[in-house]
Amino acid sequence: MFYLEKLNGKTVMKTDILEGLTHFFTTRECPIKSKEPEMQDIIKENRIMFCKELGITEDNFVYPEQRHTDTIAVVKEGQTYYPEADALILTNHTQAVFLNFADCTPLVAYDKKQNIGAVIHAGWKGTVGRIGAKTIIKMHDEFNSNIDDIKIAIGAAISVCCYEVKEDVFNMSMISVKNNSGLYKFRDGKIYVDLKEMNKRQLMEEGIKEENIDVCPYCTSCDNNLFYSYRKEGATTNRHSVIIKLKDV
Ligand SMILES: [Zn+2]
Question: The domain containing residue 52 runs over which residues?
């Protein structure tokens, strides 16, 4: 279950499904990514706060470019920036990974037995590309993760109440899952799709058990007081982030 707590007086979100993994879903109170000039001091201050909390240097706080692809990279020690990827798999405990969001769906995968984790950016393009499912297949094929050992957190994203799409996106979304019943709503001649549930269903199609998936109830648009929304805030460059770090073994 997801819950809110304070870190140095600032609200962060966590979930107990990721027990054993150091993780933070940041909120509007502690952003670490923005292109707005007036935000840069607070971004810097928050990055320093999280690095200190994680016990890492800023060189080891790594992130991908996020281009709405289905490309997955494995984090390498000494490499900070991943220009092509939308998902990062973390296998060492000297680095921490963060990805940034404002409506797109954040996924975190964690295998406690193998002590490996991943953060995945799944907007509609990534979801249609099944990037979450592909990441857990890679964890299984290349890092010996047993599918039954992988726990998944699906974080705050624009939800079916607010995520209106055009017919082309709707059609592509619906063929990205085998069973698409209940993944959309029609209201006042408009189409709304449920990206969080779509990702969940893709993961279950690869064998992830339902009890190993935790879906965050927050909608970035409805709960805009807590999270950023690209749509609601007119293409804001402010982002909330998902940060993970493996425990030392
Ligand atoms: Zn909503």
Answer: 2-245
